Task: structure prediction
Amino acid sequence: MYNWLLKFFSADMAIDLGTANTLIYVKGKGVVLNEPSVVAVAENRLLGRKEVLAVGAEAKQMLGRTPGTISAVRPLRDGVIADFEIAEEMIKYFIRKVHSRSMLVAPLIIICVPSCATQVERRAIQEAADAAGARKVFIVEESTAAAVGAGLPIDKPLGSMVLDIGGGTTETSVMSLGGVVYSNAVRVAGDQMDLDIIDYVRKNKNLLVGETTAEEIKKTIGCALVPKDKKDENQMKIKGRDLLSGVPREAIITESQCAQALSQTVGKIIDTVRQALESTPPELAADIVDYGIAMAGGGALLHKLDVAIRQATGLPVFLVDEPLNCVARGSGMMLNDVDKAKHILQTMY
Result:
């Protein structure tokens, strides 16, 4: 009766705590929040501490545009907490934003973490959620949540493979009979693609652009393969600071140039997939030949990335429905039946 009352009076939630974006799924409502994982803080010299000015979309607009007393920071790097205090404030802000004050009981929370996160990093994430007012905290690996969200038959004796490309990490996971057979994560993903573009533009165009501009280039004309017909390829005007004269100027970047910039990171993602396939038991590998590789996460939206992986592996590759929401949706499905999912949920204490 007590557990039933807790479920009735609290808004339990699942959080996809991503390097680039944080998504929150509330039980019975679906994904209710999708905001950048950015916090704007100001130094209070009188009190000797930092004060939070803005969180989420409002804070992201300040990236690269703040005065000396204010800094817009991303408290998560490579999928894990880099600045504990600011991350805790961010988690608190997002939970308060979606958790109705009329609810009398603190929420049960499921938080997704990359499989490469250490025990110390997982504990830090759990403690941040506890400090934000959670009743109980469970942790699940992102690739597992992505497989559930993609609707893969992970409970059956079949091999299901998911490739989750986020902002900070790329994860590959092979699942069967409700458990993880193989899982691996590398800290190369969407953020590294942005850095690759910044580096390419600096070296080849003598132009310095910021992370926001690099992200816009990636989303607009980013491509995993060099176009065969360069006559009709897409191009984009970019603005930045000239490294020789020091004054702002414009330049043109093409789709093929963007593909060249991203080639190294795309190669690393393909190597991660190959490594997973080499480590998969033969019977499950045979299932992957039939069912293919499911791609999820924001990085999976890179144009022709599925084609590049298909050419490298010879396997069918497909993009899941709503890849950005896939992890949050999967963890939300676990939230709807926690008892059934307890064998893949973890708690640090």
